[in-house]
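Let's inspect a concrete specimen:
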Amino acid sequence: MKQKEEEKILEEDKEADEIIALMKDNIVIQANNLVKDYHIGEYIVRAVDGVSLTIRDGEFIVIRGPSGAGKTTLLNLIGGLDSPEKDKGTIYEHGVKISDMEEESLATFRLINSGFIFQNYNLISTLTAEENVMFPMNLAGVTFKQARDLAVKLLKRLGLGQRREHLPFQLSAGEQQRVAIARAMANDPPVLLADEPTANLDKKSAEIIRDLFKDLKALGKTIIIATHDDYLIELADKIIDFEEGKIINEEIISNKKQ
């Protein structure tokens, strides 16, 4: 029993040292040997296969690859929307080991630390644009007035000031995506994750979203985007090529003129 207690203490000390090292190196997200499988009938599909990556504070990361490569799954893992297979990978975000968190604690952690922008928007159909943006702020304990004022401000910034009382089905695809971005920004999270945020949008909406990401980059937000959009790729500090669940190449972009 004593030996087991000593081993546990040594393991905890080692983990504490690793967390301190991450914080000193300005590392926001550290993923190690991630594996994620999906069961489809009798088949097992390995969507993420032994992936490790490091993301530092303020980096703009682009993940690109063919459809079905596992990009969305990787985003979900590093953002805490999903968990790796048991004993097959660890994820630290802001020095917290989120891969071992229970769902309730993880949901609270995500609410404050991560903003998600989904390709299919994921708006709540029964809430107006304004209410969708207010929703995460309400969960975080922001007062109704403060949440409403900020929601209106965000929607106006995204050109939706006159559409804030509309339900999702009354909005175009581009407008819905802009509402989704406003919602992701609502609690001012340090990390933003986006899955093909400009895909299938009209030219005007795509340009608004591209310009917004350029502004967020300038503000020092840590941004991870799965995209094929050449303009967004031009903003990248690092480009990760992803195929068949694996990172096949990482390109660090330096000395760029934005």
